[in-house]
Each structure stands twice: as C-alpha cells, then as structure tokens.
Amino acid sequence: MTSGPGEAYIIRSLGDFLMNRALLLVLLLALLPACGGGSGSGEVDYSVSAQQNYERGVERLEKEDWIAAAKYFSFIKARFPYSKYAVLAELRMADAEFGAGHYLQAIDAFKQFIKFHPSHEMVKNGYASYRIGEAYVEMLPGDMFILPPSYEKDQSATMDAHRELSTFVDKYPRSPYLPKAKELLVRVNRKMAEHEMYVAKFYWDKGKPMGTVLRLRRLLDRHAGAGYDQEALYLLGKAYLEIDEPARARQVWERLVKEYPQDERASEVRAQLGRLPG
Fold first, then answer.
1. What's the pLDDT at 38?
2. SS3 at position 22
3. Residue 65 carries which DSSP code?
C-alpha cells in the first residue's frame, strides 16, 4: 500500500465493503470460464533430438499451448543439458511462464537467464530485459467498475515497470525492442503521473498544501509530458500561495502561460499574475 493518503481512500463503511466483496465474487465467478492459460491440450510427442524438441516447443508457444511448450523445454534441459538448445530452452521456459500469465515466475526466469548467460545474444540484444519490463507492465493495476480506480491502488508494479523500462532504454539504445519499450514507458509514466496527481489533490482537499507541493514537484520532475503538466502547474501555483511562496507561484504560473497559452486555465492565471508581487 502506498504511503500518504493510502489509509484514507480505503476506509469505507462495513456495508459498502461487504457489498463490494459480494459483487466482486459474482463477477469473478462469471469470468472464470473465460480465464485460462491459453489454448491447447498440453499433449507432447517427444523427439530423439534436442533441435526437434525445441522446434516443437516453439510451435506450442506460438499456438499458446503453454503447458505443452513447458514440457518440451523441460525435457530438453533434462535430456540434453549440454546442447545449445538447453540454454534456449531456459529462455523459452520464461516465455511460457509469461504467456501463461505467471508474471512473477517469468520475471525470475528472465533474470536468471541474464545472470547465467550474460553473453547470450538474447541478453545482449535486450530481449530478456525487455520482457522483464513487459511482465511488470502486465501486472499494472487495472480498472474495474466495482473497485477503486487504478491510480488509487498499490503502485508497486508500476514503479517496478518504470525502473526496468527506464534502465532498458538507457542500457540498450540500439535494441530492436527499444521502440516497444518506449511505448510501454509512456504508458507507465502516465500511470505514475496520474497517481501523483491523485495524491496531490488528496493533500489539497485535506488542507495540506505542503504535501501538494511535494507531490506536484515530483510529478513535474519525474513524469513531465505524461499529460498532467498543465493541471500540475496550475495547482502547484495555488499551493505555493497557500504556503506563502508568491515568488514560486509566479514562476510556475508564468511557465504555464508560456508553455500552454491555450490552456483553459491560462486566462485565470494571467489575471492572478497581475496581482502577485514581482
């Protein structure tokens, strides 16, 4: 659970809590038939060669038969431990875990692959590291109509995803997976900015402008360009006035007017700037 207003937004009456739990149970039961680890029977037909077993495992991966794929790759590791396909089988086992939705296991498997095979092509080109970031993205809190919005929930996976993807972008500037990683990082940045704005507003509504200032400054420092800059600058100026920092309020509002002259708050800000000390 996140710090700050975490306790506040989970406080609900007992009646509401029980109703939400009941609704959630009904929904989950309705979704159960649709959930699963992909298609396929899990049946296998082992070959006498490591290569053929590997190819059959990859074929099962492509058909989303995660169980059969894992069987093939486990067989290769046990039967052909010194083959080059045994190393590849380790990587594909991680892919099978990912495909089955076992993201924590997949993350651990990819990390182990990087640790024990640092010179492998699929490590050097960034594939394994990219998949770790992608797995964390898959674990981001989602939105369901009977539950609080995702920006109110625990953001651990979001922070992990941001860390892994940011590291990937810095470490693998020539990776073929860089464009996809950047796309995911934009999505994660927006999630984090959304959460920071939520917490900043919470502090504002509770009459704690200093908390608002700290959260908005962090938003603008770490997640600029995620779609919340205008709103953050506007509220930050108001918060600075509340803590008797008119010079800083002027600074952020002048930035708002300069960078976003067409923003709906710009006209109001211009009027207030005229009343602030220079």
1. 55
2. helix
3. -
Q: Which residue has the tokens 């010079």?
A: 247
- The token duo for 76 is 């290769």
C-alpha distances in Å from residue 65, one per residue of 39, 70, 97, 99, 113: 5, 9, 11, 9, 22
- Identity of the residue numbered 126: G
Give dist(CA 103, CA 135) in Å, integer: 5
DSSP line for 213-236: HHHHHHHHHHSTTSS-HHHHHHHH
Q: How far is CA 53 from CA 76, 138, 278, in A?
A: 7, 29, 75
The whole-angstrom separation of Cα 218 and Cα 220 is 5
Give the 3-state secondary structure of 72-87. Answer: HHHHHHHHCCCCHHHH
For the chain, how are helix, strand and coil distributed in percent, rounded to 5? Answer: 70, 0, 30
Q: What is the pLDDT of residue 22?
A: 37
Domain 195-273 matching CATH 1.25.40.10: the answer reads yes
Mean of pLDDT values over 4-13: 42
State pLDDT tens for residues 76-113. Answer: 999 999 999 999 999 999 999 999 999 999 999 999 99
Q: Are 131 and 112 in contact (CB under 8 A)?
A: no
196 within 8 A of 219, measured Cβ to Cβ: yes
Residue 136 tokens, joined: 């964390």
Mean pLDDT to the nearest integer, 168-193: 96
CB-CB neighbours of 7 under 10 Å: 10
Amino acid at 51: Q
The tokens of 194 are what? Answer: 């959304």
The residue with greater pLDDT, 277 or 26, is 277
Q: Which amino acid is at 163?
A: R
Q: Could you tell me the residue ranges of all domains in the chain?
A: 195-273
